[in-house]
Amino acid sequence: MTKPRVAFFDFSSCEGCQLQVVNLEEALLDVLALVDIVEFREAMKESSTEYDIAIIEGSITRPIDVERIKKIRERASILIAMGACAHLGGVQRMSNQWTGEENKAEVYKRHPGSETTKGDSNPYFAQPRHRAVDEIVKVDATIPGCPIDTAEFGRVLVALLQGKKLPIPDYPVCVECKKNENICVFETGGFCMGPIARAGCGAPCPTHGGECEACRGYVDHPHTQAHNEVLKKYGLTPEQIMNRKTMYTYRYVEEAKGGE
Amino acid sequence: MKILSKDNFHAFVDTLIQEGSMNIEGVKAKGEKFVFGPLDSAKELRLDYDVTILSPKKYFLPQFETMMAFDSTGVKKPAPAKKKVIIGVHPYDIMAIMQMDKYFFDTNVDDAYLEKRKNATIIGLIPKNVSEKAFFGNMSQLFDSQPELAYDLMLADLGDKFAVMVGSERGKALLEKAQNVAEATPEEAQKVQQLQKDVQQKATRNLKASPRGWHDLLAANYSSPVWKEQGDKCLGCGTCTLVCPTCFCYDVKDEVNLDLTSGARIRTWDGCLLRDFTKVAPGEIFREKIEDRYRHRFNRKGQYLPEMLGFVACVGCGRCSSQCIPDIADPVELFNKLAEGGMVPEGPAFELPIKADLAAIPDTTNLYIPRSATLKRVEKVTKTETFFEIQLDDGQPLGHQPGQFVEVSIMGIGEAPISVSSAPGGNTFEMVVRNVGDVTSKLHGLKAGDKIGIRGPFGTGFDFEALKGKNLLFVAGGLGIVPMRSLINQVLNNRADYGKVQILYGCKEPCELLFADEIKSWPDKGAEHLLTVDKCPEGECWEGNIGVVGTLVPKVQFVPQDTMAIVVGPPIFYRFVIADLKKIGVPEENIIVSLERRMKCGVGKCGHCQMNGIYVCKEGPVFNLADLKDIPEAF
Ligand SMILES: Cc1cc2nc3c(=O)[nH]c(=O)nc-3n(C[C@H](O)[C@H](O)[C@H](O)COP(=O)(O)OP(=O)(O)OC[C@H]3O[C@@H](n4cnc5c(N)ncnc54)[C@H](O)[C@@H]3O)c2cc1C
Ligand code: SF4
Ligand code: SF4
Ligand code: SF4
Ligand code: SF4
Ligand code: FES
Predict the structure, then answer these.
(1) Every domain of chain B and the residues it spans
(2) HEC states along B411-476?
């Protein structure tokens, strides 16, 4: 069997997910036994236009990004969206709440002297609208998370090579949190998106004293109404509830609006 | 009863830890809460705890458990874990372990569970503090007297000393490692009794429906609006089942390493509140609505397990009550709500639970490791179906009854329940598999000579002895012909034993018809038959009927009261065909069906296949329709 050729591409992102792949360390050698990595800016110099599997990091933001992702899609037989930016649009999607003009004004007035008029015609400064990869091109597999979980990266790769369904669960983070025997964040005065967030990460955030922010998006059928009631009961105002839901999951807010 | 000063008790525990031959586990603090965990020193023990986040269930049915490891050389059971001592188990949690014993030792002994149970010494503890939501005091009303608990040693805190009760030889032997053990005085024994009484009192909440009456209360309230009201508030998070010491349902997954050949089959906690718990490959979810899942949990505890095994699957620990965020999982509040409806039945006392005699249960069972088998013949019979003839490598015949199924196993992919399609007897057996998911698509890629794993045969099949002398009407839809063929061939091989044999078989299109060659031989073997397809696309040829299977029923001559109808097909098929048959006067007792549900274990343990209180993998898949009258989840 010839090894499938894998190429990594980054769009609007912090490149943290690619770093997670580098962080596979010893397991990375096992991965390299399974696939040939032909493009990976974060770890190697070579680049290629010949590949079977394209792994995309980052949200699709500007018209030039749209063109680029379409080209990549044409060349790849399998396209994987990796991380919250590619899966949902990332935290940067929050800025979709305002117009490009408003965002620009907000950013540059905070840094007097950095205004640029040239920028208006430069495609690299085009006013961003953040989109998930599957809103632009067909996605064959998604590895959710911010950043992705290295173990899950391995599981997805194995499933793809074995021809199995993707091992991404459709139950909430609470399941994994409970298996870890955590004290629930709600019992210690916090607020948690765990009841509607998709598991698979192993619930690291509540396990280490944080709150789940639903960086992996929601389960297929989130009990949003019941969850809102809980947030309210524990003292959040409707506005605060909305803030929680714009962090990683503004995509769903936009989709709900679009569906109205 | 013995007495041990607290200092000596700590020294005893430290000795056990230092010896290192066993893992010493006990209750420790985690933040403001408590958990069972490994002890580095007796000082860590918090025997003043009220309740732990998770129960000691995790020692016997761990959150994640390797059932077997596999690589290119084969499949291996993991080596038994080191022996354990678990210190500080409260009586309600011991009661839950006794229920688990009953569940996992019933009919099929779960060897993975048995090994862990035999390996653990339980040191119980009469609680001093009681959590706000605990109600084990109420649950003791189930019995007329105190049950004998399955502990090895039991502690009671008497201030600067522990009273120690010995419950087993193993406990007695362990206690011999303690220094300065004294006999208890009558006053001390008296104090222990008082402590027990006080704690029962403290753990009694305002429960308006006695647990003795829960069964009838639930039965009367199956259609109550309460389920929807509460269900609307439910997050479907699964917490109430995961934290419960008497919820035993699990899922099984194959994890494969990056070498793509080695890995492990892992069992992990699952729960009926989770949406995909009953999901099957074509996408159907048998308990899709949250209120149905919410209701199932209470019914399982209060109705189904009491009927099946004689215990109420709640010990009143209060874990679900305190850990459900919308606060709707508390049995006390739920039963009080149901009791508001007016009827508060008071049933008879429950029989006292019996301590399992662990030593008497042989470790020879092997419930989960599949037997190796070889594919003798592989034939693609339609676009989506493949026929397999299989031989077990140990040379044994499968020994199945018609209507039974096997779990087909491909290491690294998983298991799937598949009906045996050949008649009983012979050294090989046959099956026909539709390609719908992971296991089934891998099977389709295999060829003669390849190896698979087989567990089974499982389930209750068709009682072909009881059918002798009767007129038989077979009605098959789609893949339903596959399990039915096993019975048809058994009947035709013994044709003289049966009355009239009529077979109605329909599928969607002519190209999906299975066993076409065999069907041609049916008339010679003394069976009348009619075939139908839902539709015949242009270009295909078809001489039989066009229309759903039900349209064939009026076309055959039979006396409804005098005929046994055997009906097998996909879920919607049943609704129509059964109505058709009943309309022309076939009594329910004369209708036999074979049902499909999500299955994982096939041996009545994982909980996935339940419809109401029935384990389809064990009591079914074949049922007499009359027995399903009170099973609303059946169709
Ligand atoms: C008693 C019984 C007899 C059956 N007999 C046959 C048969 O003769 N031929 C045939 O083609 N199919 C049969 N099925 C259906 C078959 O079991 C499923 O199609 C199969 O489990 C799908 O597994 P998968 O791994 O390919 O699909 P996936 O979707 O990957 O399923 C994953 C797992 O979910 C469970 N599951 C999914 N679908 C079902 C289902 N429909 N029923 C039970 N468990 C399921 C299994 O544990 C399976 O391994 C039978 C089912 C039952 C319950
Ligand atoms: S901390 Fe969050 S994830 Fe964990 S149980 Fe509570 S709500 Fe669920
Ligand atoms: S716990 Fe929540 S925020 Fe943390 S990694 Fe998992 S999904 Fe993301
Ligand atoms: S009843 Fe409570 S704990 Fe159980 S699934 Fe619903 S919200 Fe979660
Ligand atoms: S149902 Fe609730 S109170 Fe009863 S045993 Fe389970 S967790 Fe404890
Ligand atoms: S209980 Fe596991 S399949 Fe029936």
Answers:
(1) 2-202, 211-359, 371-458, 471-594
(2) CCCEEEEEECCCCCCCCEEEEEEECCCHHHHHHHCCCCCCEEEEEEEECECCCCCCCCCCEEEEEE
Backbone angles phi, psi at B269, to 5 degrees: -60, 140
Percent of chain B residues topping a pLDDT of 70: 100
Tell me, yes or no, if the two domains B371-458 and B471-594 fold the same way: no
Select from A35, A150, A152, A175 the residue whose CB has the most chain B CBs within 10 Å, as the one to mutate to test that interface. A175
Nearest CA in chain B to A163: B438
At residue B199, the 3 state secondary structure works out as: helix
Quote the mean pLDDT of chain B: 95
What is the Cα–Cα distance from B532 to B539, expressed in whole angstroms?
17
Query: What pLDDT score was predicted for residue B102?
Result: 97
Q: Where are the beta strands (DSSP E) in B84-160?
A: 84-89, 120-125, 153-157
**The pLDDT of residue B608 is above 70:** yes
Q: Which residue among B238, B255, B413 places its CB closest to the CB of A171?
A: B238
pLDDT at B541: 86
Q: Which of B33, B229, B258, B598 to mutate to test the interface with A (most CBs of A within 10 A)?
A: B258
How do B528-533 and B501-507 pair as beta strands?
A: parallel
Domains of chain A by range and CATH? 5-90+130-162 (3.40.50.700), 99-125 (no CATH), 173-258 (no CATH)
Q: Which CATH number among 3.40.50.300, 1.20.120.1760, 1.10.10.10, 2.40.30.10 corresponds to the domain B371-458?
A: 2.40.30.10
Burial environment of residue B575 by CB neighbours within 10 A (0 to 12, 13 to 18, 19 or more): exposed
Shortest CA distance to B89 belongs to which of B133, B119, B45, B132?
Answer: B45
Over residues A231-240, the pLDDT tens digits come to 999 999 999 9
Token representation of residue B514: 């299975």
Distance of CA B73 to the CA centre of its chain: 31
Contact B242 A184 (CB under 8 A): no
Give me the pLDDT at residue B119, please.
95
Q: Evaluate if residue B140 carries a pLDDT over 90.
A: yes
Q: pLDDT tier at B364 (50, 70, 90 boundaries)?
A: confident
Q: Domain B471-594 belongs to what topology? A: Rossmann fold (3.40.50)
**For residue B458, which phi and psi values (nearest 5 degrees)?**
-125, 160
| Confidence tier at A112 by pLDDT (50, 70, 90) | low
Mean pLDDT for the stretch of residues B547-555? 91
Interface confidence, given as ipTM, is: 0.94
d(CA B596, CA B234): 28
Does A171 score more than 70 pLDDT? Answer: yes
| Residues of B in Cβ contact (< 8 Å) with A228 | none
Provide the pLDDT for residue B6.
Answer: 96
CA distances from B492 to B120, B187, B378, B485, B518 (A): 54, 77, 24, 10, 12
Residue B77 burial (C-beta neighbours within 10 Å; 0-12, 13-18, 19+) = middle
The answer on pLDDT for B345 being more than 90 is no
Task: Quickly state the pLDDT bin for B216 (edges 50, 70, 90).
Answer: very high
> What pLDDT sits at residue B3?
97
Average pLDDT of the segment spanning B19-42: 97
Per-residue pLDDT averaged across B295-324, rounded? 97
Beta carbons of B613 and B300 less than 8 angstroms apart: yes
Q: How far apart are the CA of A110 and the nearest CA of chain B, in angstroms?
A: 42
Residues in Cβ contact with B164 at an 8 Å cutoff, skipping those fewer than 6 apart: B1, B2, B3, B4, B153, B154, B155, B156, B175, B181
Q: A interface toward B at CB cutoff 8 Å?
A: 27, 30-31, 33-34, 154-155, 157-158, 161-165, 167, 170-172, 174-175, 178-179, 181-184, 186, 188, 194-196, 219-221, 223, 225-227, 229-230, 233
